[in-house]
Design a protein that fits this description.
Two copies of one chain form a homodimer.
Chain A lengths: L50 H19 L2 H8 L3 H8 L2 H24 L4 H15 L10 H4 L10 H26 L9 H20 L4 H11 L6
Chain A binds a DNA duplex (30 and 30 nucleotides) through helix 3.
DNA sequence: CCACTTATGTAGCTGTCGCTACAGATGTAG
DNA sequence: CTACATCTGTAGCGACAGCTACATAAGTGG
């Protein structure tokens, strides 16, 4: 597992436990950021594959097999590239996961915007859970949620993966907490309610739905779960 | 990954997708069942390690690192035995996991008995969630729940692991559904309530708590989640 | 044209994975 | 005692994991 550095090398193995950061220090040019903006103008041979398309494929592999279950061979196969291209663009398997997670969260945040626009806290919860019930049983992609199925517990040498996933999950919880704080200020939620607890509760239900979906639950079953879950907002 | 059978051998690699079953066909004598009953009397050299103690150690390793993240070396190290002893007793890494899961479920069912004895459905839910909030943050064992952290998505060659875990999770859901059906018959739950949906909802919250715990949530935070979650039973 | 920079494909490296052959140890059955 | 059956430790098997050296291709800037 030890990165087997032969001579010496820029230590991009520096155990960056700090999770909020972007991908590691630039090695090569810059760790390809899959934000889709046309690359300004660069020197050297241009990249021949579309980073975002490749990330979508990698995301699917991680999603279906988890971080440790996804092999470089399978990833490169799905991405349509060879290992050196992967390592030049993303630095490492972990770097690739981080990039895929960023892209995953980005897509997720697009949905979140309109969900958070719902007029009441209860309606935010309802829209969110129903939306996720649909997304996590969409035959278009693997069942469940990448942020849960990616790996809650990993072997030695991949200890930060679970942290990475947890950090991305926390984003949603943060957004919900902020929204519920606002809801309380607006009188939508009772004064004695606890926005943080509500957000954490929803975060748990979201994760739970992801687990059920991974286990093969149907869309209708998850929708029922959502219906029951929002009752907690009715007092 | 392919089990690399050299000559020929009893095909205990038979992809036993049927999840309800016991460990594979007997190879050697019998796949050690960790039920603790004194082994009646047997021939050959007696086993020198305590199967249940060893299973407890293996359980902890799977719990902390997941199925794929747990290596044979780490497992045998924790169990205090060498690989041949492991394989003689449990057949394979997957067989060991199954045995550990059975032991996990067994312990869990002991708790469940008194929880299901609670007088009302709501109280069942409350006791259960609070109990799990405590268990999953018990510093005695890894955070979270083995049935969730063990692996929701695995690589090729370990496809049945997630099914295995899901089957064990379903046990709890089944128990809850039965209990809630009884609750409705007793008038404790409304006639128009859906015991299956309530059980599935609770199952989701349980899994969600496991995910939060894996991510480092504190006991108090999980207890708050439990408090919010049971409100869904208040109508 | 020539330097320089970066991406690509082939081939292969080292470490570790799950697992096992084998010989010796330790029990029961007769 | 001799057979037989099973467990245990040492040592190591083949397969594959993540990753990279190297030569070549394909761009930029002068």
């Amino acid at each position: 597992m030890k990165p087997l550095v032969r001579k010496e090398q820029v230590p991009h193995t520096a155990q960056s436990r700090d999770i909020g950061r972007d991908a590691g220090q630039d090695l090569g040019r810059d760790i390809a950021r899959g934000t889709g903006q046309a690359r300004p103008i660069t020197m050297g041979r241009p990249r021949e594959f579309d980073v975002d398309k490749a990330l979508d494929e990698a995301m699917e592999v991680f999603w279906r097999h988890g971080y440790e279950g996804a092999t470089i061979a399978e990833l490169t196969g799905a991405m349509g590239i060879n290992p050196p291209s992967l390592y030049a663009a993303f630095g490492s398997k972990e770097g690739l996961l981080k990039a895929a997670l960023d892209r995953y969260s980005q897509k997720r945040n697009e949905c979140m915007a309109e969900i958070l626009d719902a007029p009441t806290a209860r309606e935010v919860a309802e829209r969110l859970l129903l939306k996720l019930a649909d997304l996590q049983t969409d035959p278009q992609n693997p069942p469940g949620c990448l942020l849960v199925a990616g790996g809650l517990a990993c072997g030695v040498g991949s200890e930060n993966i679970p942290f990475e996933l947890a950090a991305h999950r926390a984003q949603t919880e943060d957004q919900l907490r902020e929204r519920f704080i606002r809801a309380r200020e607006e009188g939508d939620l009772a004064d004695d309610s606890d926005p943080a607890a509500l957000a954490r509760y929803l975060s748990a239900v979201i994760a739970g739905i992801g687990v059920l979906a991974s286990g093969g639950a149907t869309r209708e079953q998850l929708r029922e779960v959502a219906s029951v879950a929002v009752k907690a907002f009715d007092e």
